[in-house]
């Protein structure tokens, strides 16, 4: 039994690995990976792109009889929506007579939660729920936060000197790898927010010119609408300007924006920290630069997940607990 469980873990972990290909691409949809197994061997696998991962994986198999005694592993409860041109994924699984389905997590959408599973069971499919659910939750932390908390997944980010002062472009020497990493992060999230003061201090473009991928939506806080059009229109990116901090996350939720990076000035960062409206924090701490004065970096609690040494800087990853 233990050996069987270990094999099951391998197949679900492969589905999770496949799903990660959708980071920064499939939003506002969740990242989903699917693996179909028969006699201990993978016969098809896929991740969601322009179609559901399960549908892609199933349709890659031409021999209809091969689904006998097979198991379908999927990171998230299969879709039960019915569209005008296509049947939902649940109906396809039932139609192909796949006898067993292993699911990482239920869909957090209250309209869909558990509905697909009930339909599978009703049609004689054996369903295993919540398999490696902790890992599947981390995979789709943005999607789950959006649906459960009715707001985007919030990532706070700043750079500070060794003695604890905020570092701007004028004194920031993070290095090539750190700079590329920042642009990679931008490509993975839906939006990025800064205040007017940060725009002028850093002359930032908020795009992903040092990485491959989509540019995030630019979100500015500018009470008097003083930010020049150059910053707003630069890069052919969508921009949203708020003249006050109230209801920013609510507005982003209504626009189906599932993740937000918050960069820049201490006041904005601390506003999120004090209200406890954040999920993750990424802090670059320079090993070599001591400023002795300036604007003190925010103080934040939370659990440190990991610490990396990059370009002679320490990078701390924290999560809210």
Could you write a compact summary of the structure shown?
The protein is of the alpha/beta class and 321 residues long. Helix content is 30%, strand content 24%.
Please explain how this structure is put together:
By secondary structure, the protein is α/β, with parallel strands linked by helices. The chain is 30% helix and 24% strand. The protein has eleven helices and 13 strands. It has helices at 2-19, 53-59, 89-95, 115-122, 133-139, 141-149, 176-188, 196-202, 229-233, 248-254, 266-274; strands spanning 33-38, 41-47, 70-76, 100-105, 126-128, 153-160, 191-195, 217-221, 239-242, 259-263, 280-286, 303-310, 313-319. The protein has an eight-stranded mixed sheet with strand order 9-8-7-10-6-11-13-12, sandwiched between helices. A five-stranded mixed sheet has the order 2-1-3-4-5, with helices on both faces. The longest helix has 18 residues, at 2-19. The protein is elongated, with a radius of gyration of 22 Å. The two termini are 35 Å apart.
């Amino acid at each position: 039994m233990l050996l069987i469980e270990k094999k099951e873990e391998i197949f679900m972990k492969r589905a999770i690995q496949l799903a990660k290909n959708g980071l920064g691409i499939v939003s506002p949809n969740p990242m989903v990976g699917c693996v179909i197994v028969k006699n201990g061997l993978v016969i098809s696998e896929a991740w969601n792109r322009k179609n559901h991962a399960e549908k892609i994986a199933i349709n890659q198999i031409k021999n209809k009889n091969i689904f006998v005694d097979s198991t379908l592993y999927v990171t998230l409860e299969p879709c039960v929506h019915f569209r005008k041109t296509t049947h939902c994924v649940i109906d396809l699984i039932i139609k192909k007579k796949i006898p067993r389905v292993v699911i990482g997590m239920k869909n957090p959408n209250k309209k869909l939660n558990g509905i697909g599973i009930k339909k599978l069971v009703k049609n004689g499919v054996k369903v295993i729920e919540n398999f490696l659910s902790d890992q599947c939750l981390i995979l789709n932390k943005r999607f789950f936060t959006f649906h459960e908390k009715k707001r985007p997944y919030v990532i706070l980010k700043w750079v500070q000197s060794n003695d604890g002062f905020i570092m701007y472009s004028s004194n920031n020497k993070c290095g090539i790898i750190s700079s590329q990493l920042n642009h990679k992060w931008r490509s993975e999230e839906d939006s990025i927010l800064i205040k007017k003061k940060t725009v002028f201090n850093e002359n930032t473009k908020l795009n992903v010119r040092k990485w491959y991928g989509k540019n995030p939506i630019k979100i500015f806080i500018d009470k008097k609408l003083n930010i020049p059009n150059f910053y707003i229109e630069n890069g052919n990116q969508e921009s949203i300007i708020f003249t006050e901090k109230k209801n920013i996350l609510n507005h982003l939720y209504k626009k189906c924006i599932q993740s937000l990076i918050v960069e820049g000035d201490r006041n904005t960062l601390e506003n999120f920290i004090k209200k406890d409206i954040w999920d993750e924090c990424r802090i670059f701490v320079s090993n070599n630069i001591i400023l002795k004065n300036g604007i003190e970096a925010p103080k934040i609690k939370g659990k440190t997940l990991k610490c990396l040494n990059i370009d002679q800087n320490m990078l701390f990853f924290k999560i809210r607990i």
